[in-house]
Design brief:
The complex is a heterodimer of chains A (102) and B (195). Chain A has 102 residues and is of the alpha+beta class. Chain A has one helix at residues 39-52; strands spanning 2-3, 9-11, 55-61, 75-77, 91-93. Chain B is of the alpha+beta class and 195 residues long. Chain B has 5 helices and 9 strands, in the order ββββαββββααααβ. Chain B has a 4-stranded antiparallel sheet, covered by helices on one side. Chain B has a 4-stranded antiparallel sheet with strand order 6-7-8-9. Chain B is elongated. The chains are: A alpha+beta (102), B alpha+beta (195). The interface between A and B is large, with 31 and 49 residues. β3 of chain A pairs antiparallel with β4 of chain B.
Chain lengths: 102, 195
């Protein structure tokens, strides 16, 4: 639940999460990759900006994780409450990355 | 990113560089946190517009915070501070009211593997890891934090005491940071120790 500054209710927030723990290595994931910014890189970039007096800007991408494409074919069971009445035993083939995936 | 003409850095997967006749632009990306520095304001405008066509995003304008580091412009250049992170760490360690100390380590002391194991190794690892992130703007802590991190696998009560001593030093110096100078030189200088 997202609250306003005064504590009153603003809106509800929900996200679809995949059960990444059921993925098996070599079958539906190969490598877990999370990019890490090296401290030295952060310092160099900021030093460059300080030296040349360049502008420093910050951008914020909304739901950045969901923009990722998948290399492997990953299937997911239909989420509870959203099961297709006509095809209840079908599974979903994921097109994009989801929270919880490896 | 590559579609927009950026080159991915070989040295660091989160750094992208864009060269053109008007200047150069560096983009540092961490999951959804992004900072951009550039030599040409016009170039940046064009890029932001093109990115906005692709993703829904917010231009937060001037940089103040990145990965928990406060970025403050002053007349000498840029000052980086993790003061808030340091205070949060002290709260997490339950050491907000501890007595500050002026040095982070006992002079001439050496850590060894022997000793009684510390009762809560997870707590030790969590605090040591947090201190390691603090060294980003606190090179004065680097050596000592590195020393205790060598015993992450089996911390003893003695190592925990050393860790607490670093935290007491942080308590008195939490406002310390890194001043990046306008007049730094981009020459690479190497030092070596002969003994």
């Amino acid at each position: 639940m997202k609250l306003q500054a005064d504590g009153s209710k603003k809106h509800h927030k929900a996200r679809l999460v995949a059960q990444g723990f059921s993925q098996k290595h070599g079958i539906d994931f190969d490598a877990t990759f999370s990019p890490v910014v090296r401290p030295a890189t952060v310092r160099i970039i900021l030093t460059l900006a300080a030296m040349h007096n360049w502008a420093l800007r910050q951008l914020d991408v909304k739901n950045a994780f969901l923009h990722g494409f998948l290399q492997e074919e990953v299937y997911m069971e239909q989420p509870p409450g959203y099961i297709d009445r006509e095809f209840p035993s079908h599974v979903c083939c994921l097109q994009r990355a989801l929270y919880g995936l490896k | 990113m590559l579609g927009l003409g950026f080159l991915a850095s070989h040295a660091n997967s989160s750094l992208f560089v864009y060269h053109c006749t008007h200047g150069v632009l560096y983009l540092l990306l961490y999951v959804d946190d992004m900072i951009i520095i550039d030599s040409n304001q016009l170039m940046l405008r064009t890029l932001i517009n093109r990115l906005a066509q692709e993703f829904s995003m917010k231009d937060l304008s001037d940089l103040h915070y990145f990965l928990g580091i406060e970025v403050i412009r002053n007349d000498k250049g840029i000052f980086l501070s993790q003061a808030k992170y340091a205070l949060d760490l002290l709260t997490h360690a339950d050491m907000v009211d501890c007595k500050p100390i002026s040095t982070p380590f006992v002079v001439g002391s050496h850590l060894t593997e022997s000793g009684t194991p510390h009762c809560d190794a997870t707590q030790f690892r969590s605090l040591a890891g947090a201190l390691q992130y603090l060294t980003l703007t606190r090179p004065d802590l680097s050596y000592n934090v590195n020393s205790i991190c060598q015993y992450m696998h089996a911390p003893t009560t003695y190592h925990f005491r050393a860790l607490k001593r670093i935290l007491r030093y942080v308590k008195g110096t939490y406002h310390y940071g890194l001043q990046l100078s306008q007049h730094s030189s981009s020459t690479l200088i190497g030092y070596s120790d002969a003994d």
